[in-house]
Amino acid sequence: MPAAARAAYDKLIFELSSPGRFAYSLPACDVPEADPAALLPAEHLRATPAELPEVSEVDVIRHYSRLSQMNYGVDTNFYPLGSCTMKYNPKINEDMARLPGFLRLHPLASEAMSQGALQLMFELSQDLAEISGMDEVSLQPAAGAQGELAGVLMIRAYHLARGERRQKVLIPNSAHGTNPATTALAGFSVQELKSDDNGEVDLADLERHLDETVAAFMITQPNTLGLFESRIHQITELCHAKGVQVYMDGANFNAILGITRPGDLGFDVCHFNLHKTFTTPHGGGGPGAGPVGIKSHLAPFLPVPVVARKDGDKGYALDWSRPQSIGKLQAFWGNFGMLVRAYTYIRTMGPDGLRAVSDNAVLNANYVLTRLQADYDRATPGPCMHECVLSARRQKKLGVSAMDIAKRLLDLGFYAPTTYFPLIIEEALMIEPTETESCETLDQFCDAMIQIAREAESDPRRVLDAPLTTPVRRLDQTLAARQPRLRWTAG
Amino acid sequence: MRYISNTPAQQREMLGVIGADSIEQLLIRIPAKARLSRPLAVPAAMAETDLVRHLRALAGQNANADDYACFLGGGSYDHAIPSPINHLISRGEFFTAYTPYQPEASQGTLRSIFEYQTMMAELTGMDVANASLYDGASSLAEAALMAHSVTGRDGIVLSRGVNPLYRQVVETYGEGPALRITSASLGDGATDPDALRRAVSETTAAVVVQHPNFFGCLEDVRGASGIAHAAGALVIVVADPVNLGLLAPPGALGADIVVGEGQGLGVPMSFGGPNLGVFAAKQELVRRMPGRLVGATVDLDGRRGFVLTLQTREQHIRREKATSNICTNVALCALMATIYVAILGKRGLRKVGELSTAKAHYAAAQFAAIPGVRLRFAAPFFKEFTLELPKTPDRVVKRLAREKILAGVPLKSFDRQYRNCLLVAVTEKRTREEIDAYAAALAAALA
């Protein structure tokens, strides 16, 4: 659809409403007493109907189809969003998650009536344990941040069970925001650590802070600059010598499948983002799934229930018998629909396929880095892993910021890289191409980036005015925050 | 290799551009001792046809609600899901988009969330709703944390009518800030007001009631609110929004925060996840809310547009001072709910409530007429009720499963005192024929 026609659509579903119109089809009432006033005390009933839309099915289909066209997705655009692993989401995963035996299974169906689902969960947790080198994996966390919470709470419970009240968690200043937020939520204080010029952990600063008050060190591997922490064994050994548990944020797992395993590097805990590495769709912000893997000394504290295989080939069960468990994280057993997708993906790829994923993710990121290094400043020297970080500081001097470059990319048909993260890099542009993109797509993207760098020099207005082809131009964030309008009102 | 686009020839060309001989050369920062020296021991790659066969076999072992009449509830419900939902959410532009951090290229997601926030605020009777949290239980836990931070108090009083699985999640989240979680017991199915009064004190941050509660009974939310507010505590109501087309909105009954499981609004049961965590609150609490919020604004040309707003509450800005650690939520489930509410609309959602309650009351009357069977509680109920049988229900559940009926949730594992009880949910989808068949099978099983 031409941009002008797209831009013309400015409706909310409420504005399509017409009294008496409807889209639903409900069964007739086939039981004798249908009047709620006769069945329920009057004070429990709504006095006036909720103000909800009255629209036809055609209205609904056309409205949401039009809304969808205002989005960029991986299916329509290259989406080089660093740290988010916006790879292709295979369609067979969707078919499998929608099999009635999975999609229409109630979570409280008896164990005997849900054996296939439990087997899938058990096998997936085994696969993830093998991929990560951890001893056990809980599939319950609903997303990465909840996986972090589960991990940090297990660490807390572990220390407490040993009679130790450790209060602090160490986190590098390059970390994702969820790390400190989770740490605070779990009742710890946060000590931020410096990074060296490579964005790696500053070992001297780490050693300075390591003592018996520290519960855990939480790091991302590869780190948020897209670099492998090369002294990782030294780091985990230093930590363990002080009784400090080491947590790996697994957001960047796409870089290391079959190459190295957190468990072998000395990590005690790591979480996975199935919506990143394992191809479950991002859905405009979720749902995801954030399984958490641990070494055996933390197994007593795993969230309940644990999916277990019963002795003697008697099938699978939800095992609640963990008296030292940290408890539950969500009402049921995990984001099962996402687990089916991840399972399907792992079985599609096999060991060689998973290894090829990381090899090609690394290749693609280095290709982009090489092609752009003349026109943008690199954050660090040497090869990167699955993503690269550039700085727009050169362009900034010309009055064009990382944000402006991001907006201009939208006009050129690409989603934007992650901007202003990691925080330690000025005008950061973090690019993660993923393995599913072709060389041709990467070339088109790099050409666009180089074009923008040239425009910053010759025609900055063009960049500063962008985007012009999207359904709306730049939006007034200040107005939105100062006078919050968070719901629709008539008139 | 599947899903990898570069050919071997292209890989070589790309390495040439990079100036490396091999991909191995790009991995030089990984020390040798860190390297995995063998292939991963995961099962070999399967062709799509084989994989489909394998997964169909696994799925086929599960009792699904297409083949069985599902009377299971307890936090997940077999409400009908209109066909357009799956078609619309499957559009790649929705399905494969990220969190709408670049608003100009994400207006579709942002607009739909704005609609969702409006619908949830309207149904719950609150001023504002957020863009979603993970599920009903984690929403309740976040509400308890918010009440703690707003009031500076650490006591959370949970009615015994709150789903026991939710209670466990509140306890997990309450560990860090050391919340003191206590209970108020039930009278004959609903929270006992005297017990609640005794449980509440000047250290209570929030009182939590679920309405209708875990056992299906309707609560006196207004009464509970009075007790909580008199002590300076907030009131958190756990409510299922699919019921709120018919039931009075908790906001009109004194709630300060309304949370709940939105799965009933067009989200498949999917063995309990992903679900939809609904979170709504009064205006004055908005800057303490967890999760994303979408707000309306204008663009450079003055056109209406939508953005993520009040982000200084969130982890990516505030880090350890954020109101919550949540990042990824369940946007796509919120979209399902938005489309569901649009389709059902003003009258349809009310009808879902009317049909569910009518069928539930018919079922309860049929079942309770069977010798030895009675309703466990006298309090009025909505679409779910608790049956007491003359013996533990396990055998009955097994027997009815043979008749393709999922009879309900045995409560034994939740609480020993309910070891003979069965929690039965009846949605608008259940037919009189299914209910009568259930009654006949139950009578036969107990005879």
How would you characterize the largest beta sheet of chain B? 7 strands, mixed
Distance between the termini of chain A: 30 Å
Per the principal axes of the C-alpha atoms, what is the gross shape of chain B? globular
What's the rounded overall pLDDT mean of chain A? 96
Question: Could you name the ranges of chain B where pLDDT drops below 50 across 5 or more consecutive residues?
Answer: none
Give the mean pLDDT of chain B.
Answer: 97
User: What is the count of structural domains of chain B?
Assistant: 2
Q: Quick one: biggest sheet of chain A?
A: 7 strands, mixed
Query: The CATH topology of the largest domain in chain B is what?
Result: Aspartate Aminotransferase, domain 2
Please give the count of helices of chain A.
17
Name the CATH superfamily assignment of the largest domain in chain A.
Type I PLP-dependent aspartate aminotransferase-like (Major domain)
Based on CA inertia axes, which overall geometry of chain A fits? globular
Structural class of chain A comes to: alpha/beta
In a few lines, what is going on in this structure?
The complex is a heterodimer of chains A (491) and B (447). By secondary structure, chain A is an alpha/beta fold.
